[in-house]
Design brief:
The complex is a heterodimer of chains A (579) and B (238). With 579 residues, chain A is an alpha/beta fold. Helices cover 21% and strands 17% of the residues of chain A. In chain B, α5 packs across α7. Classes of the chains: A alpha/beta (579), B mainly alpha (238).
């Protein structure tokens, strides 16, 4: 093993920056076309099949903090190596702005721990401006992306059910798992108020799609990354297979600083700082593909200034970093008395929900634009840090055989017994919705601050608008209706205006997209409809940066489909000698 | 020792494999077979990065509780979670060691914990003229009863209530995330399984059923080994 220093033979057809969903898909499609590819990743190699990387199937007592989120934000066993705050890699915020930026520094990026919720954007989602006059339409429609969604479904695998709902297009589904007990309760309650509840759509293999990956064995731990590759992550399902089959070199621990350009302003490669020796290296290629995440790719472009691109590469429009938007999010939970003293059995299931509620009020007259879906959780999950807590306020909900409530707090055998009886009786829900992209929500380079690699960092400017606040208010109204209809005790109070209706801060849902949006007009967009930079023909962006708007759907499936589409376009353009 | 020296040190051990550059050239042939069946493997570093291993060791090597505090802690956690016919006590489940670690992992716990333990001595001195460890078990319970029930506690004891809430939370979590706690709860997951829905007798007990509409849509677990195939309309055909 050695560090790849620039040399004549180390010239590539394509350099891909980042190994997450977008970069991983590009590495597969481009290398299968015979191109020589370099994948440059800021983090280390990662393979959950290796014992030294495995966190799956470990009981909480293997962690001295019993799985607490002090080191890894989603818990000690979560697969994401990185977080909201990474030592030596700061970012800043503008006045009165809130934005938190989650980064995973590892092969596969954030696909290692994500929720595997794999929803297609629907026909309405690409043309929302036509409906509500807000934001902009995409320059492409569902029909342009559908063939790629089909291919992604078959290649990677997603379970679900064919429902025939217009804006929730069906795909090539694997069979969904049956619901858990709390999910049947939710379904029963939701039926009473005419709220649709359908099988969830997750990229977890309930049946195999090839001989290379295993089938789900129902441990519910997809966020820990699967040692038999039964869930989708970019490293195990795209990059590693691409390396086996094609000419792909993977550079890990390599932090890209900028895209280099020639006199004509075309991309010639990248420079990166090796985290191992803190030296800078250069790689050359005919095409550069950015898949570093919406904000990191924008940062690289803004830091790639040259005579031809004085405001940053691909930024003649001044739109790089603009229209940054994350999903909205709000959550609520309750206790279902019917699920106290439950019979014990292995209820783990797949990693995440077996059912969900797609947005059900399209084209209805509401006091906010766009919509949200609802994710559900609860049941007899594996205890982790925090389990058994809160008895000072919740023990009153445990009742004895005569219906008398236990006292809040307490100690001793009675407390121990009540916690035992409580196990598996909570149920919760999370709304995840579409925000309206704003020109005034953006990231830019903070010229006053550099990271430990000497690279200027991002400064975020972000404020929610009334649209998102009202949507969050609607979420809580729905949550209370669902919990009420299923006979649950609703915990907490409905958050009011002073608490922003419980709306999470921008960035917290980790669906940030839009910073290099596509469009037909080069003065108001960064990329064309194939995610090619308007003013640098051999530069492409395959992460969420290209999104014009992001629906209430989790972005990964669309990132994968668009990256596949862009990769085919790159191959076509190289063949035609256009780039 | 700086970070890079740390890394060098760790890379000499078994952690080195697969951590630096992974090439696809002849110098790094990919020979690992992908297992299709999960393995449990070793109890060990549970997938830590080199930096995380160093950080965990650093926290473990420091001691927060004094001997006297630790004795008090042992008494208190067993008052909160004593042994019963189902399982052992908090100390038997190693809860004090877990709390010791958490004091360093979340430093915000330190002052409330240290101050709370001392507050118990003050209270004990006021009520019985001796420190908490020196009074009888019955007397200790009298003090605990003053702070264990937040809805009934006197305003003057609110500090004690907050301390005891924190201790109750830590003790309960420490106990139920231990092997002893899993046994107590009857938690039987975290192992390979074939999920085929809620058992029939449980469905009957709760008056619920699987939606008959999805009878032929839900996973038939006997097909878990068969590679999926679809027709052009997305219907599963094999």
């Amino acid at each position: 093993m050695s560090i790849h220093i620039q040399s004549a033979e180390d010239s590539y057809d394509v350099i891909i920056v980042g190994s997450g969903a977008g970069g991983g898909m590009a590495s597969k499609i481009l290398s299968e076309a015979g191109l020589k590819v370099a994948v440059v990743e800021a983090g280390a190699d990662f393979d959950p099949a290796k014992e030294e990387h495995r966190t799956q199937l470990r009981p909480p007592w293997e962690s001295p903090r019993r799985g607490a989120g002090t080191v890894r934000p989603f818990g000690d066993f979560d697969a994401a190596i990185g977080g909201w705050d990474i030592e030596g890699e700061p970012y800043t915020r503008g006045q009165d702005s809130e934005f938190d930026w989650f980064r995973s520094r590892m092969l596969g990026g954030r696909t290692n721990h994500w929720g595997r919720i794999s929803l297609r954007f629907g026909p309405l989602d690409f043309k929302r401006k036509n409906l509500d006059g807000l934001g902009d339409n995409w320059p492409i429609g569902y029909e342009d992306v559908a063939p790629y969604y089909d291919k992604v479904d078959k290649l990677i695998g997603v379970f679900g059910s064919k429902e025939g709902i217009n804006n929730e297009p069906d795909g090539f589904f694997l069979p969904p798992p049956k619901p858990r007990l709390h999910e049947l309760h939710i379904k029963k309650g939701a039926d009473k108020i005419n709220l649709p509840v359908i099988p969830s759509r997750l990229s977890i293999l309930t049946r195999p799609v090839n001989n290379e990956r295993g089938t789900c064995f129902f441990c519910s731990q997809c966020n820990r990354a699967c040692q038999i590759y039964a869930d989708f992550s970019s490293g195990t399902c795209l990059v590693k297979p691409a390396m086996k089959k094609g000419k792909v070199d993977l550079f890990t621990m390599s932090m890209v600083r900028k895209v280099t350009t020639n006199e004509q302003g075309e991309a010639t490669g990248v420079t990166y700082i090796s985290k191992l020796d803190m030296q800078e290296y250069k790689l050359n290629a005919r095409v550069v593909v950015l898949g570093a995440s919406a904000c990191e790719s924008a940062r690289i472009m803004l830091n790639s200034k040259s005579k031809t691109h004085p405001d940053g590469l691909g930024n003649s429009s001044g739109h790089v970093g603009r229209y940054l938007h994350d999903s909205t999010g709000a959550d609520r939970m309750g206790i279902l008395p019917d699920m106290m003293d439950r019979q014990r059995y292995n209820e783990d299931g797949v990693g995440g929900m077996h059912i969900y509620t797609p947005w059900w009020l399209n084209e209805k007259n509401l006091d906010f634009a766009r919509g949200y879906h609802i994710e559900y959780w609860g049941g007899m999950g594996m205890p982790s840090y925090g389990f058994g807590g809160g008895m000072d306020t919740m023990r009153q909900y445990v009742k004895d055989e005569f219906g008398n409530p236990s006292p809040n707090g307490g100690y001793g055998q009675g407390l121990k017994k009540d916690i035992r009886r409580f196990f598996g009786s909570t149920v919760g829900m999370s709304g995840r919705g579409e925000s309206i992209p704003q020109y005034s929500n953006y990231c830019e380079i903070d010229n006053q601050v550099v990271d430990k690699f000497g690279i200027p960092v991002l400064k975020f400017h972000y404020k929610w608008t009334d649209q998102e606040l009202k949507q969050a208010r609607h979420m809580h109204e729905t949550f209370e209706e669902v919990l009420g209809s299923m006979g649950a005790i609703i915990l907490g109070n409905k958050p009011g205006a002073e608490q922003q209706y419980g709306l999470h801060k921008p960035g917290r849902i980790i669906h940030e997209v839009g910073t290099t949006r596509m469009g037909d007009d080069a003065s108001t967009s960064v990329l064309n409809k194939f995610s090619q930079a308007h003013d640098c023909k051999n530069l492409f962006v395959v992460d969420g940066g290209s999104f014009v708007s992001q629906a209430d759907k989790n972005p990964t499936w669309t990132i994968l489909a668009l990256s596949w589409r862009t990769s085919e376009y790159i191959i076509d353009q190289l063949n035609k000698k256009n780039i | 020792m700086n970070r890079r020296e740390n890394l060098k040190l760790l890379f000499t051990g078994s952690l080195a494999s697969g951590f630096l550059f992974t090439g696809c050239g002849p110098e790094a042939p990919e020979t690992t077979e992908i297992p299709h069946n999960p393995t449990i493997g070793e109890f060990g570093s549970y997938g830590r990065t080199p930096e995380e291993i160093i950080y965990n060791e650093k926290l473990k090597s420091a001691t927060f509780f004094t001997e006297d505090e630790r004795k008090k802690l042992d008494v208190l956690v067993d008052i909160i979670i004593p042994a019963d016919e189902t399982s052992g006590s908090a100390t038997e489940a190693g809860v004090p060691d877990f709390i010791e670690f958490m004091m360093k992992d979340i430093p915000g716990y330190q002052t409330p914990m240290r101050g709370g333990l001392l507050w118990l001595d003050h209270k004990s001195d006021e009520m019985f003229g001796s420190k908490f460890l020196e009074i009888s078990e019955e007397q200790r319970i009298q003090i605990i009863d003053e702070i264990a029930y937040p809805d009934k506690a006197k305003a003057e004891n609110e500090g004690g209530v907050r301390f005891f809430n924190m201790l109750r939370n830590l003790t309960a979590t420490g106990f139920f995330t231990s092997e002893e706690g899993f046994k107590d709860l009857g938690y039987v997951g975290n192992r390979p399984n074939a999920w085929d829905g809620v058992p029939d007798e449980v469905l009957a007990k709760h008056g619920l059923q699987n939606d008959p509409k999805y009878k032929d849509v839900y996973l038939d677990i006997t097909t878990r080994g068969t590679i999926a195939q679809w027709d052009d309309e997305g219907n599963l055909i094999g």
